[in-house]
């Protein structure tokens, strides 16, 4: 147990505000005895939901203790709850999963049968999520003093939403928050440079333009720069690259571009953007017209102390680009959360990216940990799940949660490794999401998705007698936006092994995109956060060389399997040096949020 943790010693500082001290004391309280808090949380969840159709099935007979719960209620995945979720989405208001009414669904970026998962949520959940969020800045303030003297430039956006056939909203957690009265009545504009109207504008170009302009106008006040996903920060930079002339023009004339026509944004901007600033316009032209954009963030926002963005898990691929544009600013990965529940925060936010660990807050949900067996056959031993307080340092587990809104022993799919303890609360490194191969932003493409997409696309080659004999993939994040690259080795008809035309290959790219899940297609079409899919055809024999390379590095020839996703530089170099042609998707795939019934079908 940490006797005098950095948090505790820093908390004693006379400069720590009363509000922060309260939040820090809460963290101390939550981490001192997580086991008893977990017991209480499970008791509450089970007693208030004892009358639900779901729990009644397992004959708990009013029991609210962990032992009975674990012996009677099965560990489940989304697929096991689809019927219940479908009924709720269609308007059945009886207590199916939860005794409190489900007031909306949060749409997860995880998919089931290619469509977004719908996570039930109840009205009070927003307070739980807000509570966890409110712990982040008090911790940050301990490590970076003076943040209250300026503002945060955060690029925040609402995403598409829909209603289920039963009339419940279905949208991502952050969109739900921005559209709530909590956000609308908050004092966010004392803290952030972006006006609420800009964040709430559903046209992402107008939203970005207004947020960027406000960030430029207040450039000396900006002390931190944040986004949810790193790809969004790179898009903001790319947006600046494409729009700095127009932004400088606005600033030098004091007249807002006609690109902003949303009435609410226009009206709000007319109050913020009241006069020309020639000096700022000239500065912007001077900086942005330079060829080299290395360190552009600190040039434009010189007082920025850190970037606030998640760079753990799949997002680690963006670290070099973030370092390049920020001139090596520290990157803080502050929170670990999902649509199912918010989980925990990073108590040492200025640590190196490789050292980030999250401390799960035991009041958020009831947590169990399924030991992760690398070599296992995947069979689930339900008796092997471990309590939050009993996990062991160095071991890997899959997170399983029971929530107030009606998920019971639900496998989140995240693999976490215990790195240590804060007080008595374990801290976890995010290792990976189970079975996710490719991810640019919120999209998660697994091996089955990729396999299906390759199969569908390769049918287009069959007419010409060409076959895909091997494939692998790579998430290319150096382009803005990032895109999927699929390497194909082809076998043509006859001796000549002639390759299909560019037109056919481009169709294959599009067919792959059409076959990928709805989160991918939404990112392509609506959010525009993923660029056109690329197929790189490699020379015959390339995949044999890949195997030779793996074997030379110690893989067993008998057990060698073609990796369906690659990221190691020498392997990418090998593949790229064998490319004979590259082809891009010529069009956008189909996507519409449609009816939520489509989402869960
Ligand atoms: P969603 O439900 O779409 O919000 O996605 C939640 C998932 O995103 C989690 O289950 C994780 O797989 C991933 N995620 C969330 N926060 C983090 C984080 N701090 N580091 C790595 N992955 C994260």
UniProtKB/TrEMBL annotation:
<feature type="domain" description="GH3 C-terminal">
    <location>
        <begin position="449"/>
        <end position="567"/>
    </location>
</feature>
<feature type="domain" description="GH3 middle">
    <location>
        <begin position="358"/>
        <end position="433"/>
    </location>
</feature>
<dbReference type="GO" id="GO:0005737">
    <property type="term" value="C:cytoplasm"/>
</dbReference>
<dbReference type="GO" id="GO:0016881">
    <property type="term" value="F:acid-amino acid ligase activity"/>
</dbReference>
<dbReference type="InterPro" id="IPR004993">
    <property type="entry name" value="GH3"/>
</dbReference>
<dbReference type="Pfam" id="PF23572">
    <property type="entry name" value="GH3_C"/>
</dbReference>
<protein>
    <submittedName>
        <fullName>GH3 family</fullName>
    </submittedName>
</protein>
<keyword id="KW-0436">Ligase</keyword>
<dbReference type="InterPro" id="IPR055378">
    <property type="entry name" value="GH3_C"/>
</dbReference>
<comment type="similarity">
    <text>Belongs to the IAA-amido conjugating enzyme family.</text>
</comment>
<dbReference type="Pfam" id="PF23571">
    <property type="entry name" value="GH3_M"/>
</dbReference>
<dbReference type="InterPro" id="IPR055377">
    <property type="entry name" value="GH3_M"/>
</dbReference>
<dbReference type="Pfam" id="PF03321">
    <property type="entry name" value="GH3"/>
</dbReference>
């Amino acid at each position: 147990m940490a006797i005098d943790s950095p948090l505790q010693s820093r908390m004693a500082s006379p400069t720590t505000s009363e509000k922060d001290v309260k939040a820090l004391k809460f963290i101390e309280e939550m981490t001192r005895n997580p086991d008893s808090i977990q017991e209480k949380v499970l008791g509450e969840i089970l007693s208030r939901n004892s009358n639900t159709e779901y729990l009644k099935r397992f004959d708990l007979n009013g029991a609210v203790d962990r032992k009975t719960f674990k012996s009677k209620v099965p560990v489940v995945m989304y697929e096991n709850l689809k019927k219940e979720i479908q009924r709720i989405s269609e308007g059945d208001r009886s207590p199916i999963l939860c005794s409190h009414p489900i007031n909306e669904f949060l749409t997860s970026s995880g998919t089931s049968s290619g469509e977004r998962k719908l996570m039930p949520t109840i009205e009070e959940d927003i307070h739980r999520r807000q509570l966890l969020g409110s712990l982040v800045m008090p911790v940050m303030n301990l490590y970076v003093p003076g943040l209250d003297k300026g503002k945060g430039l955060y690029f925040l956006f609402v995403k598409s939403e829909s209603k289920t056939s039963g009339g419940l909203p279905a949208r991502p957690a952050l969109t739900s928050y921005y559209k709530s009265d909590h956000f609308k009545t908050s004092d966010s504009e004392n803290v952030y440079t972006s006006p609420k109207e800009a964040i709430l504008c559903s046209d992402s170009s107008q939203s970005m333009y207004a947020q960027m302009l406000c960030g430029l106008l207040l450039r000396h006040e900006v002390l931190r720069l944040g986004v949810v996903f790193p790809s969004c920060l790179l898009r903001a930079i790319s947006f600046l690259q494409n729009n700095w002339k127009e932004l400088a023009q606005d600033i030098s004339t004091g007249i807002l571009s006609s690109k902003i026509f949303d009435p609410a944004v226009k009206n709000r901007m007319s109050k913020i953007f009241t006069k020309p600033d020639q000096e700022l316009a000239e500065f912007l032209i001077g900086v942005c017209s330079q060829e080299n954009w290395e360190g552009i963030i600190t040039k434009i926002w010189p007082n920025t102390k850190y970037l606030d963005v998640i760079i753990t898990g799949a997002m680690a691929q963006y670290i070099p680009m973030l370092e390049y544009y920020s001139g090596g600013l520290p990157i803080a990965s502050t929170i670990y959360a999902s649509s199912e529940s918010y989980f925990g925060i990073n108590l040492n936010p200025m640590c190196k990216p490789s050292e980030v660990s999250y401390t799960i807050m035991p009041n958020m949900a009831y947590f169990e940990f399924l030991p992760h067996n690398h070599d296992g056959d995947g069979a689930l031993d339900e008796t092997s799940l471990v309590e939050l307080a009993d996990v062991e340092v160095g071991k890997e587990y899959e997170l399983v949660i029971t929530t107030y809104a009606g998920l019971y022993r639900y496998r989140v799919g995240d693999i976490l490794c215990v790195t240590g303890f804060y007080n008595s609360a374990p801290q976890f490194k995010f290792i990976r999401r189970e079975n996710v191969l490719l991810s640019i932003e919120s999209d998660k493409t697994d091996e089955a998705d990729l396999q299906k997409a390759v199969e569908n696309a390769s049918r287009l080659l069959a007419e010409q007698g060409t076959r895909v004999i091997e494939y692998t993939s790579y998430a290319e994040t150096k382009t803005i936006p990032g895109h999927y690259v699929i390497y194909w080795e082809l076998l043509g008809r006859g001796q000549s092994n002639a390759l299909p035309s560019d037109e056919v290959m481009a169709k294959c790219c599009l067919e792959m995109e059409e076959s990928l899940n709805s989160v991918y297609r939404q990112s392509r079409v609506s959010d525009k956060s993923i660029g056109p899919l690329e197929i790189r055809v490699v020379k015959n024999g390339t995949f044999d060389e890949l195997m030779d390379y793996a074997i030379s590095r110690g893989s067993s020839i008998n057990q060698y399997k073609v990796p369906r996703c690659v990221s190691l530089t020498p392997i990418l170099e090998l593949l790229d040096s064998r490319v004979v042609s590259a082809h891009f998707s010529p069009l956008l795939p189909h996507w519409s949020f449609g009816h939520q019934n489509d989402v869960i079908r």
